[in-house]
Amino acid sequence: MASKYCVANWKMNFNGQQGKEFVSLLNSKDLNNGQSQIILCPSFTSLFSMVEASSNSAISVGAQNMHFEDSGPYTGEVSAQMLNETDVKFVILGHSERRHVFGETDDMIHAKMVQSIKSGLTPILCIGENLDERESGNTNQVLRSQLEAGLADVNGEYIIAYEPVWAIGTGKSATSEMVAETHASIRNILAELNVSENVSLLYGGSVSPQNTAELAAVENVDGFLIGGASLDVEKFYSIYSDL
Ligand code: PGA
Fold this sequence. Notes:
This protein is an alpha/beta fold. It has a single domain (4-242), classed as TIM Barrel, CATH 3.20.20. It is built from 10 helices and 8 strands. Strands 1-2-3-4-5-6-7-8 form an 8-stranded parallel beta barrel, surrounded by 5 helices. The structure holds 2-phosphoglycolic acid. The site of 2-phosphoglycolic acid (PGA) has 13 residues, from strand 8.
């Protein structure tokens, strides 16, 4: 059975103090309520304080990105070894904003997958089609090529998040029918790539307390990757409770 995850992608929001306040509010709630593991992904500068604030709790912490090299002349970048120093266990890789705003290619994301696993981190690999690709009937082909590239010769633990680009931050989540169909296709592709059924497959894209009860009931949905709604502790907790 795949494990379930409720992952907050805070993007470039919240400073360290706000992150710690969120952890303290969340920790005051019953975190045995849902069946999923909570992972909060703040900005790099908050990682140390967030790991400290959430120690001895049901909350884990992850980073939003990392570089694929060990070290070197990469101004502004953070390596996996530096993430290890903060004691985070997870890292989001290949988020659509990294792909589309910062120009990350499948090759770079693959190199990050290899490096993160080598460094003992569990990557959350994001994949997803844009609106043109969906409307022209190419969704499965796009997802297949992102999976083939991202997972080539990758052995170890990882999580996959399906996030249709057109659903991210738009308030227009994919319908439960679309998620059911697409997650089933992704499972088929993963089976062809000899990826275990135990690899968790999350959905992301305008997840909110209004749609999580329905989406959580969809087969092959092993949790959520949440942007906007994860900035509000009540909304995040409500989503967690639906899983
Ligand atoms: P959203 O973002 O929930 O605000 O749509 C999801 C994501 O980017 O991971």
